[in-house]
User: Fold WYL domain-containing protein from Acidipropionibacterium virtanenii.
Amino acid sequence: MAEEEPPRTAPRYTVSQDGVVITPEVWAKAGDDDARDQLLAASMSPEEFAAYKRGRQARDEVDRLLSHPPPPAPVTGPTYWMKLRSVSAAIRPRRRLTFWYGAEKGISHRHVDPLRLTRVRRHWYLDAWDLDKEAGRLFRIDRMAPPHVGDRLPDPRPVPHRVPPDDFRAQALDPRTRLGADLVLRCQEDDALGRLPDVDGILDPLDWQTFAFTALVGDWRQLVAALATVDAAITVRGPDEFLEYLTRAATRLATISGRTEEDVR
Assistant:
């Protein structure tokens, strides 16, 4: 697509299939906050831009994504969890989510219908329907600036069983190499994302305090150890193989602690 001419007071930017893409080089040439704001405002609605201007974290994250080269992104901390909470809060009511997203060439502004969250090797990913490209897309949370949660989508698409994943995530979540267990977590939205540390899986909000979590582990021992240390209301739905393993583990621990099998029940 041909390059568009921006306002004279702003540096040049390029337009691609991802929309307005701002490169690190262009960002560095913008000499002050006003020039940089003009770059961002070119592809944001007035409401989105006003929300961006109000949020210090959003501006800091855009700076981080456009530094050259970008520093390693934290996968914990207040800003990271704030982004996760915003995404999670938008999934259940199917609210439009907009955010700046960092990729190889720079950042672009995305408009998506959020579907589910997936965790792979301590990284959270958002499965979403890209409203501009009309295609399923995958977004890594640490490459996302704090999102703007908009209105409910008037006619949301049915949530597909799976959104086509990238090669890395497909390999990491391959059921042929991972054991999967279906869990239900009952907790507040802010708490659900921090449960089951270091356990990969797919998180689906069911209602305002109930989440389905498909845990994917290398062996059942890893999941039993995680469940034993989590203070949350969790129900294991299956499979039977894991339920049997969990029962044997509980009986063994009860024996070690001197309790009887009836005490465990």
The longest helix spans residues 240-257. The longest strand covers residues 107-120. The chain has two domains: 14-152, 174-264. The mean pLDDT is 75.
